[in-house]
């Protein structure tokens, strides 16, 4: 939706001083001529570290262009209308994109308590005229004693991450940014059909058992009921009044240390990490995403191989399109298994994984591969978790933020403290049990969050994008990026395009396969999983496009969940 802001920008506008990172110049990529898929048994080996340069990190440098940008619109995209409203409220009051993203992140944790919150963590990228793409990692880590509790709970980083972003780039007072979330928790909000379903799905019933405010007459709340979270409002008020340190060394920390796996020393020493993003050419753009242990380099690899295979020449949802993007994903997914881990502990060859020539060379063997696991290894693709926020302010600062509890509600044995659920992030060491992803004190696990920015050939952000979806996130992003970047599809059309995901020989689709897709499935020996909106497999893309020629911000709504966006016209008085 779009409206006109009712007031002029106020005094809150100067960004804090910050390091300037290289803005990346895009190179036009060429899609290979499309060919009909030919089945063959071979599977290409990903590049070895010996063949690869050192890991990619965006080098500190002057930005490609520091020219001021004055847009005539600003906007927020998030997974719930009330969270969008919280971010817009901050932008209306004169805050910048970072201020709005922080306010939105706390608000979404109130209205989407199953997906993210102060008991979890996340990652954020931001870029604008005065700062090149920079990244922050505030995900959970293993405690100093190396203990991984049965719940999988790691030291939560969200509060520290928001505080670090605020210190580095914020302009408004910290307590003002928490006020919208406090009001949503204390006054309540209307339960949506999706939230009512999550109360009743997978780990929802066990997670909310014994929590009266999630029930009415002993039954979970229904759509249209009002959810009031008094204890959460009190915790957020403590954070607003006492500052973020209350979470790590104050009264909230006292509650957290009662939870197995959390201890006072690890909490007190938690630090948000500077996490230089990775990037690679895709079409006429540079795709920038989160560095290891997050899978941004694998998303770049998937996009580049898909482009080289000619995915841009195939209609979304067609057999050729599914085949080419799935083959690209098989290679990228194998790269994650082979190489990805916490970069403080292992080297990840991201330079090689994001090199367009190297990935073009992999495209031909990728076209021949068709690994099919044994029948006993096949499992249905499950609901994808997390939440994403994208914000653009009138000065062209763009924030792409993905926050998560990891599994919905923090998993089967979720912990509940102070009105919020704790994460089960450390279960990802078992779920992604590879040589490079093994637990030890202070270590972060490989996971699937991939906040992203897309740059034009002047180094300007033209798209902020991200999605929930767990292991499906790379395929969701690819399903939007191929039509948007290679086929010039409008953003809404690209987000509405059909999605698919291949995992362990199971192809998940959003509808019944066409005859040509059925033929491909038979040829490849895949199983089919037809999903519904209730299955929550294919995420909810939150994206905002920046049109510099018209000084405009373009949004799109993903109807697969409760997603929304708002774009506001800038006016002067």
Automatic annotation (TrEMBL):
Top-level taxon of origin: Bacteria
GO molecular function, one term: glutathione hydrolase activity
Keywords per UniProt: Acyltransferase, Hydrolase, Signal, Transferase, Zymogen
Matches recorded under PROSITE patterns: PROKAR_LIPOPROTEIN
Region (Disordered): 32-66
Protein family: Belongs to the gamma-glutamyltransferase family.
Protein name per UniProt: Gamma-glutamyltranspeptidase/glutathione hydrolase
Organism: Enteractinococcus fodinae
